[in-house]
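Researcher: Structure prediction, please.
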Amino acid sequence: MEERIPTRLGDGSYAELTRSEIRADVEAGNEAAVRRAKVAPLDEAEIDHLTDIYASPSRFTAVDIGREVVLSYDGCGSQCIGTRVNDLQSYEQMLGADLVELWHMDYCYKAVRTVLPHEQGAMKAAQAVLTAPVQYGAMPDLGRYTRPNGPCPNWSELMPLGRIDEARAAQEEAVEHLVRDIVLVCQGMAAAGADGFDFDTSGAAGDADLLAALTAAETLRAEFPDLGIEIGMASECTLGMHGQLEYRGTRLAGMWPHDQVKAAAQAGAHIWGPAVNINTGKTCAWNAARTVALLRRACEEAEIAVHPNVGMGVCGVPMTLRAPVDAVCRASRALVDLLRIDGL
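Model: Predicted structure follows.
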């Protein structure tokens, strides 16, 4: 009888599986990616390696010495230790962060625009005491521009009524507002000394949301050629809420990772952060295999740095507020070992 090994499901709960069951989950996750995204399957050696990672009963696992990668952080500095700036210092000095991010609790550019002078002061203070690069980050969050709190009609209300043209026009109008706000905020943060900008969870509201992030990145790259720009994704496949929008001749709806990274590079981003959403009913081994299979082509073809998001609910990490370290380290090692990524 095979020994049962403690592992986790995508919701963070414990499960006990045999090595054979874990391997079967790895194979199933691989097959799910191939079937859905039409990507090349993992080979036997890659499946064996993933099985070894997730079949280990160890509490913690890690990459081999000499194969460590850059650690960039979004959303750090949550005022858990003193001020937000104190938190950034703790990430740099205690957690070994290579890049940290200042952010506002209402994490979107529309909201930050209203408190920009306050955020500029915080950025200036952070730059005075940190050595690691400090970027400023927020979500594009296109939905913030819909009524009643925004200027545009709500396309999610229009579409069920069959008013498709009006819904598309509303999204296009919202893109113009969002691009203006992103550029305004980033110009202000650059003046305060920011080392770069992060457009976190781009595409969360669909293809129009991603278009705004790409357009803003292109504008900022022209104005600030030496500052960093990171585009972090919301999903492995861009939702077609509009369906007809294009960036440089390529339709955004339905983009898989290997297309997303090319668009980010064309827009002038330095770092692309892919996100592959978790299936909470499957094991972490299943989710990790699906993630690796979905991202491999993108990593092979990328011309900019690739930093997969290993936060809660993406890229093999369970959907829990405080992700268990045994799951995070396994997902991180799988990505580094099999994809040769630039950072996490």
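Model: The chain has two domains: 1-57+283-301+318-344, 72-273.
Researcher: Thanks, that helps.
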